[in-house]
Amino acid sequence: MKNRYSDLTEKVVFVTGAASGIGQAQAKAFLEQGSRVFGFDQQLGRMDDLSQQFSETFAYFLGDITNHSLLKKAVEQCHETFGKVAILLNTAGILDEYQPLLETDEALWDRVFAVNVKSMFQLTHLILPDMLEEETGTIINMASIAGFVGGGGGIAYTSAKHAIVGFTKQLALDYASQGIRIKGIAPGAIQTPMNAADFAGNGEMAEWVANETPVKRWAQPEEVAELTLFLATPQASYIQGTIIPIDGGWLLK
Ligand code: NAI
User: Fold this and answer.
1) Ligand 1 test: best mutation among 38, 65, 66, 94, most atoms within 8 Å of CB?
2) Cross-referenced Pfam families, in alphabetical order (predicted)?
């Protein structure tokens, strides 16, 4: 798996949600290509394994992504440890328990938007100037099939993921001519701790999801990480503002 993408060697990658699931798989995939990865998460989780395995090239910051001053500190720490960020992976996110509008109070709505959307705006605000100075950089935002259709979450999550699709498109349009590559990923059913409830008990829910997916299975977070690697290479530099589904055909229906 190593050094398949030599362009990614020594690149500084900032990844949110690096302690678990897709973010952890992305961090590991870039580390395996020789990138220097700075993780941000509110829990240590699997960042512990990454620091042990990649002690020279992985560093992390623990904090709530909705706290702007902590984000600022983390970016400063990344600068001191590895230098300017070349690749930003906005991956951290939370689900909303699939609640419809009348079951969603203002606090849940605000939290889902703060974690999933506003943090992306704030972190991009902190990191984009570095990229503009270098006249190059890649930003990959984690959307979802819930960014295109209903049913992938409740009212708050689906609205937030649609907002991420819009954010990605406008950002991509605004900075395309200045060397910044901006893309999104829209995963379908990926087996991570976020979906642990679907696999609980006899796993009936997970089985239903697999059956509803045209290719009849869940995907692993490493499959999303593999797509992320490619999107960050110069070979993918003509892909701009596109949100790429990786969903086993879910959006075909
Ligand atoms: P996960 O729950 O395994 O990992 C999410 C990580 O984000 C966790 O380590 C968590 O601590 C961190 N995080 C959450 N809130 C945070 C906060 N306030 N501050 C700092 N860190 C915070 O979830 P998964 O599945 O890896 O999801 C990653 C992204 O992929 C999310 O944006 C999710 O919406 C998206 N996604 C996931 C799909 C799936 O099927 N697993 C499908 C489509 C999109």
Assistant:
1) 94
2) adh_short_C2
Cα of 72 to ligand 1 centre, how many Å? 21
pTM above 0.90, yes or no: yes
Tokens of 85: 């960020």
Q: SS3 of 88, please?
A: strand
Alpha carbon distance 151, 160 (integer Å): 13
Work out how many domains the chain is built from and give that number. Answer: 1
**Residue 252 resides in a domain:** no
Q: Is 64 within a domain?
A: yes
Active-site residue flag, 157: yes
Query: Ligand 1 in contact with 196 (CB < 6 A)?
Result: no
Does residue 39 line the site of ligand 1, with CB under 6 A? no
Q: Domain with 28 in it: what CATH number? A: 3.40.50.720
Q: What is the distance in A from the centroid of ligand 1 to the CA of 204?
A: 22
pLDDT tens, position by position, for the chain (253 residues)?
Answer: 567 899 999 999 999 999 999 999 999 999 999 999 999 999 999 999 999 999 999 999 999 999 999 999 999 999 999 999 999 999 999 999 999 999 999 999 999 999 999 999 999 999 999 999 999 999 999 999 999 999 999 999 999 999 999 999 999 999 999 999 999 999 999 999 999 999 999 999 999 999 999 999 999 999 999 999 999 999 999 999 999 999 999 999 9
Q: Show the domain range for 11.
A: 6-243
